[in-house]
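step 4 of 6: structure.
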Amino acid sequence: ETGVTQSPTHLIKTRGQQVTLRCSSQSGHNTVSWYQQALGQGPQFIFQYYREEENGRGNFPPRFSGLQFPNYSSELNVNALELDDSALYLCASSFRAGNTIYFGEGSWLTVV
Amino acid sequence: QQQVKQSPQSLIVQKGGISIINCAYENTAFDYFPWYQQFPGKGPALLIAIRPDVSEKKEGRFTISFNKSAKQFSLHIMDSQPGDSATYFCAAGGGTSYGKLTFGQGTILTVHP
């Protein structure tokens, strides 16, 4: 158990809809990152939040957005869902000054 | 410059054997190299990690070997067990990119009893 919890675990959405995924970071960790893992691939960095601000972004379009709250929990929002957005979305937490990164179990998103 | 290349894609080993997975990176700013183990339907679990100031790190049956000049690192699993059957990912991060990891493509390890 990493102490990183994500919800929901599975969901199905229709193309064009919007989705919100949630994450609670490990106690003491102030940095949250989100990754997308397509089937059979390694995780791809989406973005990172530190002190409630986006602090680095991967090669993902603006319809992927996020929030971090004062308690360090975070949300990932995806608008205008496309079929290719179907993937496992992973939340990872870390302490700002270090690099040890712990992942949650992920949220499986299927877009139909 | 951000790529991490991992090989082999899949690996079959007999119980008790040694499993070896290799990774190569390009970005010399990377200074943190973890390995993650992932079981089907689960998130990646941190297995072992190394920084470039050492050439080898061992934790139980798992060893990372690191070659800074060649920009390569590898995971060795000694006395491989059927319970080790999983997908293994190498990753690289650090420098100014705290919390951001670049992952390899993964290796599916199967350990036969």
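step 5 of 6: annotate
 - The longest strand of chain B covers residues 86-94.
 - The CA atoms of residues 73 and 87 of chain B lie 17 Å apart.
step 6 of 6: archive
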